[in-house]
Design brief:
Length: 160
């Protein structure tokens, strides 16, 4: 069912204004913005046109979203695996996610060490079960097994 020209133009203007308001608060991926606009009962054709126009105007960018999202997740102590999965869930391709992670590239082992110290104190685990618990915590945060194990090295503990 197509809308009359005046109604379609009004629906476009409302969807465009809503898109701008959402982008003024924070960066969004194209997929996220489409989902939010569709959730506000905007017709799919109008949503597609609005997102295409916002991309063309440089107001909506998956690259910019990936960088901002990656930075915020690194600051909150998440590892590269979890960040990449979360970006994929938000419609960001693996190549773009990898580029954002490579651009910011913190010392993942130091980050894992900080998260372990923050959660469990700086003491090394005394028994096997405590070590496994800490390793699982770091893996849930998105660190690789190697990065999580590096958080336990005695040299790293002395420098922390």
């Amino acid at each position: 069912m197509s809308l009359p020209a005046e109604s379609a133009d009004e629906a476009y203007q409302q969807a465009y204004a809503t898109g701008l308001r959402l982008l003024a608060r924070r960066e969004h991926s194209i997929q996220e913005l489409c989902h939010k606009l569709r959730g506000r009962d905007c017709p799919a054709a109008i949503v597609d046109q609005v997102t295409a126009d916002l991309v063309e105007e440089g107001l909506l960018s998956d690259r910019r979203f990936a960088e901002a999202y990656t930075y915020s997740r690194i600051e909150r102590g998440f590892g590269p695996l979890r960040i990449q999965v979360e970006l994929r869930e938000r419609g960001i391709g693996d190549a773009l996610a990898a580029a954002a992670l490579a651009e910011l590239a913190p010392d993942w082992e130091a980050s894992a060490r900080r998260q372990r110290h923050k959660r469990f104190s700086s003491d090394a685990p005394l028994d096997f079960n405590a070590r496994v618990k800490q390793l699982r915590f770091l893996q849930r945060r998105g660190f690789t097994t190697e990065q999580a194990r590096a958080a336990f090295s005695s040299e790293a503990d002395e420098n922390a």
